[in-house]
Amino acid sequence: MIAHEEKTKTGDRPKPVSKGCNDNPVRIWIDIRISNGLHLSQKNLSYQDLVRMIEKLEGLC
Fold first, then answer.
1. Cβ atoms of residues 40 and 60 within 8 Å
2. Cα 49 from Cα 44, distance rounded (Å)
3. Count H helices, E strands: the chain?
4. Closest CA to 30 of 15, 16, 51, 14
5. How far from chain centre, in Å, is Cα 13?
6. How many alpha carbons fall within 13 Å on the CB side of residue 10?
């Protein structure tokens, strides 16, 4: 019996975000408009701030 070994390409894997290089951190700006007239806008969010905001929005659904 021949064992099957699955090989993955390095390009298929997500690349980890470097935590040590904060020379120019990414900041996120979102603008959400909903059909009922609600307008949400947040500027200068970090990734963690964005995650927290999404969790709060999921709680409203």
1. no
2. 9
3. 1, 2
4. 51
5. 16
6. 1
Q: Which residues contact residue 39 at a Cβ distance below 8 angstroms, ignoring those fewer than 6 apart?
A: 31, 32, 33
Tens of pLDDT, residue by residue over 3-31, are: 554 455 555 665 555 555 566 788 999 99
Q: Give yes or no for residue 45 having a pLDDT over 90.
A: yes
Percent of the chain with pLDDT over 90: 46
Do 47 and 28 form a contact (C-beta atoms < 8 A)?
yes
pTM of the model: 0.53
34 contacts: CB under 8 Å, gap ≥ 6: 40
